Amino acid sequence: MSTPSEIETVVSRLKNLGISSPALYDTPTLNIAGNPFDLFRASISKTLSEVSGVEEDLIVPALEWTMTPDRGDLVIAIPRLRVKGRKPDELAAEWVEKYPSTPFLSKVAAKGPFMQFFFDPQLLYKIVIPEILKKDSTYGDAKIGAGKRVIVDFSSPNIAKPFHAGHLRSTIIGGFLSSLHERLGYEVIRINYLGDWGKQFGLLAIAFAKFGDEAELERDPINHLFKVYVAVSSAQAAEKDAGAAAEAVLALKASLESESISQEEKADLETKLVEAEIKAKDLAKVALEAAAVLDKNHSLKDANDIDPAYFIPRPLDSEAKAYFKRMEDGDEEALAVWKRFRALSITKYTKTYERLNIHYTEYSGESQISEASMQRVIDILQQKGMLYEDRGAKLINFAQHSKKLGKALIQKSDGTSLYLTRDLGAAIERYEKYKFDKMIYVVAAQQDLHLAQLFKMMELCGFPWAKDMVHVNFGMVQGMSTRRGTVVFLDTILEETKDAMHEVMKKNQAKYEQVENPEEVADLVGISAVMIQDMQSKRVNNYKFDWSRMLSFEGDTGPYLQYAHSRLCSVERRAEITHEQLMAADFSLLTEPIAEELIRTLAQYPDVLMNAHRNYEPSTVVSYLFKLTHIVSSCYNILWVAGQEPPLATARMALYSSAREVLKSGMILLGLTPVERM
């Protein structure tokens, strides 16, 4: 992974540190120039290979982190090296005995079938601190994605609806994965695949024509369109219930006309008919009231005069279908209304995304997929004999490939495409446009089957890039509502967290007065609260939205991370030590065990990013940052800067500044904006 010139630079730096001929194993899997742990892996694998006769390529992947410092910095399980004819614990003891003293390690120990490697802390200080302070926030970056392009498909809200809290997880996880891949050298294409097509937009258009308000649309487009959509959805549901009740009345009347029923059956049917007519009248009244909300000029004024059968054809459904048909047929007037709603929605979403430090390369959507691409999908599936027809509809049976995948509808009997067809059409268009090396779909676990079917379709169609698909799934947020218990939209949640943080900040008047822009800081801390609560658990787990825990400055929360960063900034301000002085610090003065624990943790950061890349887990970085801040907090009682002799104060400040840089780097990677005062 490191270039020859980079390795040459590393060797030169080691010589300056007194290591004249470092024995290092150079392999593409190791980032010797950018990852301190990889540098030590390169040394250990080379030396252990000479001692044991085992190939370095077997040793490198077998070197693993330890859970606690007393077990070393890296450990290797001897059975993983596949040496036959000897007991692993005997080999561990023998190889430890033969292992030569090196400037990289302070100790090598055998523990049963394990070899434990303890890094030399003084060498760590000399390598890690200058690297962090020199590179600033690029510490931890790698080049594993150099020359590769990855698409991240995430967020994907439905247009004309507020950004629901349920979209938060996809947005946060997708934003993190995009930033992580960029840090690791990939070119990242961020795509927001909007839900922007379908009969519901015909429904929205006719509702806006009846119920909409132009002034409100300009002032607050998303919330006004949502209000319109809720009203028309209620009317549609009431209409459906009224129509079903009217159909039940007609069915009972038809039964009564039958000559084959007995007198007893007739009496029973008459009783049911009376009850059904009362129910139908009541539901017709509800439907009429809902329709009147939409259209004050509704021609039907009196529910007592209405024939419930009026609702059997589902007037709103019929209008919505007719309007959407106009959209599909390219009617300019109908499309102009839809395009306006779409543009207004994107403008509003963009403001919310900016607040979350999210941006996109492309706003796509179901509407953007060409008919030609979808027909191409149908043609390929047909040619490969994968489709069968059922009452005019086209389906694919995955059972012969995987019983879990079952059957899927590809095209309705009227020729309408479905999600699978559109999604595969979208993937084809994306590959032709971007020639990606990997495409990540950040979609909830409820869609596991859909994505598995989609990926299998790609494979069966013979697309070589089918193997490059990744579904990053996640669990649901449970109990997410505002503090007043009402329905949640993300903007409302963010406003409430900002207000809550602002109130907390005001309680410390002295510090509050030092903050130049308290409302902005309160907003940033509030956003951190929401995002960290979402990211601190494994993404596949559901989690309960907890206001009291989220807003706390104690424990593992977003506000705590912000507090930890601002406190480190405060230490730096008070110390008044220049960057040049920090770079020239005498690290031999750092002798305390807690300082060693901190430098070992800082050295792990590049490994943490690589682990997160492998498991697609924001929680990997979040857990690391909490571990880091807890250690820093423990340092404050021992590693004093104020009142110390300048050389000691400078060495300790260099360690604290390194911790702040790594904390800042990790927070930015997660999508947070670190604050310097709060």
Describe this structure in words.
- This protein is α/β, with parallel strands linked by helices.
- Helix content is 56%, strand content 9%.
- It has 25 helices and 14 strands.
- It has a five-stranded parallel β-sheet with strand order 7-6-5-11-12, sandwiched between helices.
- Helix 2 packs across helix 3 (56-62), helix 18 (518-535) packs across helix 20 (558-575) and helix 24 runs antiparallel to helix 25 (646-669).
- The longest helix is centred in the middle third of the chain and has 36 residues, at 221-256.
- It is elongated and about 105 Å long.
- It starts with a helix and ends in a 9-residue tail after the last helix.
- 40% of the residues are buried.
Which helices and strands, and how do they pair?
Layout (H helix, E strand, L loop, with lengths): L3 H13 L19 H17 L3 H7 E3 L8 E4 L10 H11 L6 E7 L2 E6 L1 H15 L13 E5 L14 H16 L3 E8 L4 H13 L2 H6 L1 H36 L6 H32 L20 H14 L3 H24 L6 E4 L5 H13 L3 E4 L2 E5 L9 E5 L7 H16 L3 E5 L5 H13 L8 E4 L4 E2 L11 H17 L2 H6 L3 H18 L7 E2 L2 H4 L7 H18 L3 H5 L9 H11 L1 H11 L2 H18 L10 H24 L9
Parallel strand pairs: 5-6, 5-11, 6-7, 11-12, 13-14
Antiparallel strand pairs: 1-2, 2-4, 3-4, 8-9, 9-10
Helix pairs in contact: 2-3, 5-22, 5-25, 7-9, 7-11, 9-10, 11-12, 13-14, 16-18, 18-20, 20-25, 22-24, 22-25, 23-24, 24-25
